[in-house]
Amino acid sequence: MKKSLRAGELPISRKVILGIQHMFAMFGATVLVPNLTGLNPSVALFTSAVGTIIFHVITKGQVPAYLGSSFAFIAPIIAAKEAFGIPGAMIGSLTAGLIYILMSGVIRTIGTDFIEKYLPPVVVGPVIMTIGLGLAPTAKDMASAHLPTAIFTLAVTIVISIFAKGLLKVIPILIGIISGYIFAFYFGIVDLAPVQEAAWLAMPNFSLPSVSEFSASLPAVLIIAPIAIVTMVEHLGDVLALGSTVDREFIEEPGLHRTLLGDGVATAFAALLGGPPNTTYGENIGVLAITKVHNPVVIEFAAVFVLGMSFIQKVGALIRTIPPAVMGGIVILLFGMIAAIGLRTLIENQVDLSNNRNLVIVSTILVIGISGLAFNIPGLDVELAGMGLAAIVGIILNILLPESIQSNPQETE
Q1: Which percentage of the chain shows pLDDT scores above 70?
Q2: What CA–CA distance (Å, rounded) separates 260 from 65?
Q3: Under 8 Å between Cβ of 241 and 280
Q4: Arithmetic mean of pLDDT, 291-314
Q5: Phi, psi of 279 (to 5 degrees)
C-alpha cells in the first residue's frame, strides 16, 4: 500500500518555502486570464486561493492540486462580457460550475468503471502528453520576450534541480525565478513603477450580480456553460496527470466525483464574486514532478500566501513585475515535465507501439492535441479543440478499433 501523501511531515520552514515556490508557478497564468478578459486580477487571486482551499476540503486533503484561472473560458467570457457585461459573464461561469457539480453527482451514482474501459493507458498517456506539449507555444512566446533571460533562468533551474542538495534541491523553481529576475533587472527589462503606484492594502473589488442583472444575463449561459463539457474532459486529463505524477489513483480515492465537485464548487464560488472559472494547474503539476514533494499541505500554504497577495497590493504588484521571459524559462521545463509524465504512463503500462491499433490511437491523439485542431459542434456555440478534442477522438478510436489488430510485418510478407 502506498504511503499517504501527508506521511513524513515537513518542517514548517520548508512548507513555507515550497508553498512560495508553488505560488510563483501559478501567479503569472492566474493574473493573465483576468487581464485578457477585463476582470479584476485581485479578485482572481482571491477566488483561486479560496477555490483551492475549497477543493482540498472536498477532496479530503488528498489531492495536491492548485486551482487557478482557466484559459478555456477566455473567449466565451469575452463574448459574454461584450454582450451582457460582467454580470452576464459571471452568470455563465456560475452555470458551468453547477454543471460540474451535477456531473459529480452522476459519477458518484454510476461509478468510475467506465474510465478503465474507455480510458486505458493507450489513451491516457498521449492525452497527458498533449497537456504539456500543447502549451509549448505559450512557453515559446514567453521565452522569446528576452531569450537570454529565459535561457539563463532555465539553466539555473536545471543545475539546481540536478546538482543541488538539501533544501535547495526541492526549490529549483524558486531559485530559478529569483536568479532570472536579477538577470532581467541587470538588462533593464524589469519595470518597478507598478510597485510604487500600488497601495499597501486594498480590498479586492468583488462584483456580485443583482437579481435584475441575473435575469437579464440568462442568455449568456448559452455562451459559456457549454464549455464545461470540454473542460470536464480536461479536468479528467489533469487528474490523471496528477495521479501519474505522485503515483496515486485519485480517480478511485478520493474519487473523480470529489475532484469534479471541488472544481465545480470553486468555479461557482469564483463566479459569485466576479472571478474567472478555476481549473487544476499544469504548472504546479510540473513543480510536483521536479521537487518530488507531494504533500498537499504545501499547496494549501501556497493558497494562503496567494490569499494574502490579493489584499497586499504592493507585493502582488512586485510579483507581476516578473518579466515573461523569466517565467518562459521556467515553463519550458514544467510543461516538458508534464509531457514526460504522459510518456512514462505509456512505458510503465507496457503499451505495445508495435501494435498498429495502439500506434494509430497514440499518433492521432498527439497530432490533434498538439496542433490545436478545432471542431465546432453544429447548432451549438461550442468549440472542441486541443486536448479536449484529442481525448474524445482517442476514446472513440479505442472503442471502435478491435484489439485483435496486430502489426508484425512478418505476417504480411
Answers
A1: 87
A2: 12
A3: no
A4: 90
A5: -155, 155
